[in-house]
Structure formats: C-alpha cells, structure tokens
Amino acid sequence: MSTIKPVLVVAGVRAGGTGAATAAAFARKGYSLALISRGAEDLQALVDDLKSAGSDATAFPVPSYSAPSISSVFQSIHTRYPSPHYAIRAALYNASHSIRKPFLELTLADFHAAQETIVEGAFAFSQEIIRVFKENDIDVDTGKRGFLIFTGSTTSIRGNRTTSAAAPAKWGLRALSQSLSKEFGEWNIHVAHAIIDGIINTPFSRSRFNDPPNWVENEDVRLNAEDIAKAYVYLAEQPRSAWTWELDLRPAHEKW
C-alpha cells in the first residue's frame, strides 16, 4: 500500500528566519516542503541546504505576494506535489512587509505595499489552502483535515508611533485568521494565529537592530526562530478536543 506524503507550504521564507526554521522542523516530522518567497537565488540556496540535510524541498519563487502571484504559484505546487501521492496538510503564511515611518511621511504606495503582502497575499493563500484542506481525509491522530497558521507580531494588537502602515495590515491578518478559524473549525480545519511579541534573532534583525546592547547573546530579551518553529509544530499536533486559535510568544524580559 502506498503512503501519502504530507506537505507543508510556507509563504515568506528567509534564511535563518521563522519560515526556514519551521520548514526544517516540519521536515523532521516527515513533511515535504513547498517554499514560496521573493528572491529566487536566496530561496534556492535555502532549499539546497534543506536537501543536503535529507529533506524533500522545492523552491517556488514569486515576484510578489499579490493575489495573482499566489494563485499562479499554487498551480506549480500542485504539479510538483500531485494527489494522491502527496497531500498538503499544513501551511504557514509568514510573509510580511517591514515599514516604519512617521505617518505624514507615508505614501499611499507604502500603505498599499503593506496591504498587498500582509492581507491580500494571506487572503489568496488561505483560499488556495482551504480548498485543498476540504478535500483531505480527517487525520486519525489529530482530528484535522489541515492546519493553517499565520505569523503575526506586536503590531497585530498594538499600534505605535511609526506603524500606521504596518499595524492596519497586521490587524487585518489577525481578523482574517479569526474569521477563518470560526468558519472552518466545523470542517476540522485548524486555523491559528501567532503573535510574535519581540525581536527574533535572525540575520535580517541583526543587520537592523542594535538596541538593547548585546541582545543577540541574551536569550532573555529576544526570540529564537527555532523555538517559534517548535511552537508551530506543537499547534499542528494539537488534538481536536483542545485547539488553540491564538498563541503569543515573547522572551522572558520583554515588556508588555
């Protein structure tokens, strides 16, 4: 009897970041990996590293996270991981758009760019994923047809002086996740939202932040991408009698 291989789809992958760490964590659980990101060369380098570690991973570069780009890339994913040999069982929308400016310095283009990546992309991604999940059988161990998680941030629940473009988009992403969780729970589709409340130790963050001093060496004041990934695996494996919609993660000394 042939075995159906589970697939994790991740949108928003950067070396050393949450998307990459989550991909590696799910690969250790036996998942094949469909990784969506901008930046074809960097994405392929990450996939090559995963393959060298024994993972089944494929790069799916996109020019943007617009709805047309997301719809197009899913056609390629279904070709690479066809049913009935594969089944998409888990998905992470981790794409974001970092922009911090005083309100009067923002342009409509800034605002629209945040909305496109964070909200429009998530909407299109969710429609593709949930259509697939509804066709899946219910997993006997977890009671799920599929698991969909969104990566949020502090701005998902709290605006600040320079987040007038990012916060409305992140609030929208959170509202989308809650709406989907309520609508599709009765389909045994688990939808979750994670508030990442703090700085993550990634190459991108290390290139941008130097406050507080020596934050990279101090695990009390920053998050590890690998530890976030462990939390995502925990959510994916929750049984149907005890599902989490929203989980917030922060380092021990984070002020909140």
TrEMBL record:
Q: At the top level of its lineage, which domain of life is listed? A: Eukaryota
InterPro entries, per the entry: NAD(P)-bd_dom_sf, SDR_fam
Any Pfam family matching the protein: adh_short
Looking up Gene3D superfamilies in the UniProt record yields: NAD(P)-binding Rossmann-like Domain (3.40.50.720)
The record ties this protein, via PANTHER family, to: OXIDOREDUCTASE, SHORT CHAIN DEHYDROGENASE/REDUCTASE FAMILY (AFU_ORTHOLOGUE AFUA_5G14000), OXIDOREDUCTASE, SHORT CHAIN DEHYDROGENASE_REDUCTASE FAMILY (AFU_ORTHOLOGUE AFUA_5G14000)
Q: What is this protein called?
A: NAD(P)-binding protein
